[in-house]
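Predicting holo structure, beta-D-ribofuranose bound.
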Amino acid sequence: MRRVIVDTDTAGDDTQALALSVLTDRLSVEAVTVVAGNVAFDRQVENAKYTLSLVDASDIPVYEGARSPLVKSHEHATEIHGEGGLGGDLFPETGIDSAEGFAPDEIVARCRESPGEVTLLCIGPLTNLALAHAREESLPELIDEVWVMGGAVECRGNVTPAAEFNVWADPDAAKRVVDAFDVTLVDWGLCLRTALGPDILDEIDAMDTDLADFFREVTTVVRERGEAGGLDGITQPDGLTAALLAYPELRERVESYPVAVDDREGLTRGYTSVDFEGVTGEPADTRVVEAADSEGFADAVLAMLRDRDPDAAFE
Ligand code: BDR
Ligand code: CA
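Done. Tokens:
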């Protein structure tokens, strides 16, 4: 069982990543940290707590982190996830208290306490991790692995032509993290290539479970947009990243490259430059998941929504 902190800007696909991370026996989620990103910060905190309660995991502490990016300002992604982040109609008030402490401090404390044992699953902008690194320079040595949903590798961006949302939202933090840590990237292009197709969505529509209801709710807008935009199905960037971390058997090709983030304001803000040819002479220390088993991923999602048991897809 891999020990994990999930760092999230909890909205649509983050909720599915959280649910999967909690429900799989392959991961042990020790804390959830919330970072500015998809929607209003306090909504994200409630969305995280609500998701944990749905999977009977309200005992997992939720720490509040950075309420804004390091330097630049960003826009929310309510047009993707709905006002509030859960499809537009669901605004939970759980009454659950946040854990005491600032998320970046907690990341540092937990990694110091168990050197080399905690993995970070980052499914939002990278502000919390950058702040944690500013507090503890040797964090890269104290951490087990860092998995990041972010970047656009050999594909167009989803928030600007050049950039993917999580990197675009806080490019200063992303640059710091990619430069300092040996990150594994699950980029937007891979998410498009592993989208859940109409047949999978039909199967989910036919399910009568709490988790399938929740999935349908949080994917309302993204589904309408996908249909309008010509994507046959929907992406699940954060759920995919969680699944790739939990189930190594889903990783079909992982290569290491030098990766650099453009932190400048302007047209290419948040662009992830991947040096496929090794022309920069920089170290190839960023792992990029280039191909994944999309059927296996879909099976894990179906098993989770049907029986709360994503691991059943791998038995
Ligand atoms: C990423 O941006 C967010 O809207 C999603 O939650 C995901 O983390 C995809 O670009
Ligand atoms: Ca996210």
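The pocket of calcium ion (ligand 2) is lined by residues 8-9, 14, 37-38, 123-124, 238 (CB under 6 Å).
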